[in-house]
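#structure-requests
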Amino acid sequence: MEMNQETLEKMRQMRLSRMYYAFKTSMDSFKAEYMTTDQFVSCLVANEWDDWCS
């Protein structure tokens, strides 16, 4: 299994649904290529945070 697929599966199993969706979307649209690593992680965490706080 590809590393990204393993990561997505772990996110799904941990019920990190927003983080899962943001990561999957970024892979589909290559959005991560335009962000630094810290910006990308911040984006993933912010998506998950929004789900926890809503």
